Amino acid sequence: MNRIAARAVKWGLVVTAAAGVAAAASSGAYAIVLDVYLLCIGAVALLALVRATRAQVRAQRTSPFDAALAAMRRTPPESGEPPLVRELELSTYSAFHFYSRLRPLLRDVAAHRLRSRFGVELDSEPARAHELVGNQAWDVVRPDRRPPVDRLASGPTVDELRLVVDELEAI
Predict the structure, then answer these.
(1) Of 165, 167, 157, nearest to 95 (Cα)?
(2) Cα–Cα distance list, 47 to 39, 41, 58 (Å)
(3) Are 108 and 171 in contact (CB under 8 A)?
(4) Average of pLDDT values for 106-132?
(5) How many angstroms separate the CA atoms of 122 and 125, rounded?
(6) pLDDT in tens, 52-110
(7) Does residue 155 contact residue 98 with C-beta atoms inside 8 Å?
(8) Hey, how many other C-beta atoms are within 10 angstroms of the C-beta on 167?
(9) DSSP 88-128
């Protein structure tokens, strides 16, 4: 007798003994005890069948779903260029990308430099901040700048961005 059948017989005997004790202790509820007994014996038999079937199956190959899931969990290979280079390139193609992705980074740089070097807050002291920031950079980092009307318009050129970065470095 194999291990799975031995365990099923052992649990069948335990369930049978428990049903016998329950039937002896109950006062006329034999129908319920029999229903519960048959349900438990069925569960033991079903569990034994599932385990026997699983034991008969050879080593499972990974399914296409598992392979795709594992591929999703792997980190993509490094392209070698910093992520900011991609943001700069995409910002030249789309004015909205520039406004929503690159402009917040430039604002953070400007706010940090103004706060650490001059004690000026970019948002709460815009007049003083405008005096300290160059005109090209101020046009980008000013607090009241609105999103572009035409979201598909091209963004600033690389030379314009270079000028903005130079002005922010000069703060």
Answers:
(1) 157
(2) 12, 10, 19
(3) no
(4) 91
(5) 6
(6) 888 877 656 677 888 888 888 877 667 667 778 888 888 999 999 999 999 999 999 99
(7) yes
(8) 19
(9) HHHHHH-HHHIIIIIHHHHHHHHHHHHHHHH---TTT-HHH
